[in-house]
TrEMBL record:
Keywords per UniProt: Metal-binding, Oxidoreductase, Zinc
Protein name: peptide-methionine (R)-S-oxide reductase
Gene Ontology biological-process entries: protein repair; response to oxidative stress
Highest taxon above the source species: Bacteria
Catalysis performed (reactions): L-methionyl-[protein] + [thioredoxin]-disulfide + H2O = L-methionyl-(R)-S-oxide-[protein] + [thioredoxin]-dithiol
Domain MsrB: 13-137
Pfam families the UniProt entry points to: SelR
Length: 138
């Protein structure tokens, strides 16, 4: 886990605020979390590609999405490991692994391991819907 000092897509706070809705900005740029079971993609089963809502970089594919019943969209792997950045998060009195877009540094959610889900990786990328944009497969 490491934190990149530079990203391919960089904008000032003012530019991010003008490009994103208040809810998107809060999650993507301030690492907020949307309320569970309220996100647009929580129960979506549409086939396609999930990209970063801030910069459009591909992050996940529907083929790795699964129902974890945790309240947020869950994936067992990113489309490629290079598309996400994993960073140790010690906020809220616990140690977790934050998931960010490797292209622009936007906060996406967290990844958890060893929870016993029947997935090939035993990982759950717990991702805020508001940080994603789904492009359905035609």
């Amino acid at each position: 886990m490491s934190e990149q000092s530079t990203y391919k897509v960089t904008k000032s706070d003012e530019e991010w605020r003008s490009a994103l809705s208040p809810a998107e900005y809060a999650v993507l740029r301030e690492a907020a979390t949307e309320r569970p079971f309220t996100g647009e993609y929580n129960d979506t089963e549409t086939e396609g590609v999930y990209s970063c809502r801030a910069c459009g970089a591909e992050l996940f594919r529907s083929t790795t999405k699964f129902h974890s019943h945790c309240g947020w969209p869950s994936f067992y792997a990113p489309s490629t490991d290079d598309n996400v950045e994993l960073i140790q998060d010690t906020s809220m009195g616990m140690v977790r692994t934050e998931v960010r877009c490797a292209n622009c540094g936007s906060h996406l959610g967290h990844v958890f391991e060893g929870e016993g889900y029947p997935t090939p990786t035993d990982q759950r990328y717990c991702i805020n819907s508001v940080s994603l944009k789904l492009a359905p497969t035609e």
